[in-house]
Amino acid sequence: MKCPFCGYTESKVVDSRPTDDSERIRRRRECLRCQKRFTTYEVVETVPIIVIKKNGMQEPFDREKLLRGVLRACEKRPVPVEKLEKLVTDIETELQNSMQREVTSETIGELALAALREVDEVAYVRFASVYRRFKDIDSFLEELEKLRDSHEN
């Protein structure tokens, strides 16, 4: 950290504490050359994830939209809301950790399907029917066969 008084680049942290809103860290520093003290603030840098939709349009990732989708798939199913919130948080964390700032809606849909498959198979099929746009009963049966085959293996 560069001293605002003498420009020296070496300093030591004298005190460190979160700000009142807990969004930043306030640090009191002392320059190792001129011994003057100054304050810096440390902020977590977040880069938004951009979702590229099937039609090519782009929009920011919206965890609430994903949560609404999995909630709808789990309607009248014995799945606690907390479990679904964790599922969405896990997907969001995976996207943030991937270091890719643009992700396709297909990628998000596949992550949600994989997670729902572990949580509730009926919710999985419901979500798949909307996400994969099942057109007829054969589409449902094909997905159910895949699910049945995975149980047998």
UniProtKB/TrEMBL annotation:
unnamed Zn finger ranges: 3-34
Domain annotation ATP-cone: ranges: 49-139
ATP-binding is among the record's keywords: yes
Pfam families on file: ATP-cone (PF03477), Zn_ribbon_NrdR (PF22811)
Cofactor (UniProt): Zn(2+)
Repressor listed as a keyword: yes
InterPro entries per record: ATP-cone_dom, NrdR-like_N, RNR_NrdR-like
Cofactor binding mode and count: Binds 1 zinc ion.
Protein role: Negatively regulates transcription of bacterial ribonucleotide reductase nrd genes and operons by binding to NrdR-boxes.
HAMAP family linked to this entry: NrdR (MF_00440)
Protein family (similarity comment): Belongs to the NrdR family.
Record-linked NCBIfam families: transcriptional regulator NrdR
UniProt-recorded name of the protein: Transcriptional repressor NrdR
Organism field: Hydrogenoanaerobacterium saccharovorans
